[in-house]
Amino acid sequence: MAEGCTHDCSSCGSNCKSKDLRATLREGSCVKKVIGIVSGKGGVGKSLVTALLASKLKKNGLKTAVLDADITGPSIPTSFGVAEQKAMGDKSGAIYPVKTESGIQLMSMNFLLEKETDPVLWRGPVIAGAVKQFWTDVVWNDVDYMFVDMPPGTGDVPLTVFQSLPIDGIIVVSSPQQLVRVIVEKAVKMANMMKVPIVGLVENMSYVKCPHCNEEIKVFGESNINGIAKDYGIPVLARIPMSEDISKAIDEGDVERLDAEFLDAAVDLIKAV
To answer: Model-level pTM?
Structure first.
């Protein structure tokens, strides 16, 4: 990679496109599979899907980890109830991830800040460099599946993750509104351009179940996810309901207690990656 690389290969004069740009894990680390959780816009539930999948696979007997690549807006620590904890380091420069109650390994920017409410006022290349360091400097202990919680969009961080980490597949998160279709298609097309396999689509806020008759109420109208899946030949992995129980578990940092049976099919496909 050329010095001062902006990750924009289209405007680059260096002949490095054929080179392997992937970063190397720290000695003693082991990560077997890496799954990115992406979307073209914020607020659709990427962090929720990331936390639920890491918890679900851990309950299936697999060792899981979360690399929180949303440097300026991390929510993973709060979801797991470890927002007050700090990542420890040693003289060699190694950083040790925070572990959840069930043993999920986490690395997030909030673990390095004095206060979790302190803002990170960095420009894109610096943020992208920090994400890369979460891969190269953290001691990841025998991880079967790492989930990378991406920030929204198709900018510096997604480009860095796709180029620097050995991504085995991505999951695209959507919500039912018609506007989101365009945004989701951007994420799908980016993955195709970067030659990153797409595991499938997850639709969050898909419906609300009536507490009296159990009918599914489409708050945002009819879903567009089947059309997107058909157009691009990728499966729909799950539809996540709007649920007071889910919201409460996230707010209380107790995401690991959720059963998330709606993700069973997604877990099966991820295991097959």
So the answer is: 0.90
Please give the structure tokens belonging to residue 5: 């690389």
**CA–CA gap between residue 139 and residue 135 (Å, rounded):** 9
Contacts of 105 (CB under 8 A, 6+ apart): 63, 64, 65, 66, 97, 98, 99, 140, 141, 143
Chain centroid to CA 244: how far? Answer: 23
DSSP letters, the chain, are --TT--S-GGG--SS-TTS--PPPPPTT--EEEEEEEE-SSSSS-HHHHHHHHHHHHHHTT--EEEEE--SSS--HHHHTT-TT---EE-TTS-EE-EE-TT--EEE-GGGGSSSTT------HHHHHHHHHHHHHTB---SEEEEEEEPPSSSSHHHHHHHHHS---EEEEEE-SSHHHHHHHHHHHHHHHHTTPPEEEEEESS--EE-TTT-PEE-TT-S--HHHHHHHHT--EEEEPPP-HHHHHHHHTT-GGG---GGGHHHHHHHHT-
Tokens of 64: 């899981």
Rg (alpha carbons) of the chain, rounded to whole number: 18
What are the structure tokens assigned to 47, written together?
């962090």
List, for the chain, all residue ranges whose pLDDT scores fall below the cut of 70. 1-20, 178-179
67 pairs with which residues across the strands?
A: 107, 148
How far apart CA 264 and CA 270 sit, in angstroms, is 10
* Percent of the chain residues topping a pLDDT of 70: 92
User: Half-sphere exposure (CA, 13 Å, Cβ side) for 38?
Assistant: 30
The whole-angstrom separation of Cα 100 and Cα 81 is 8
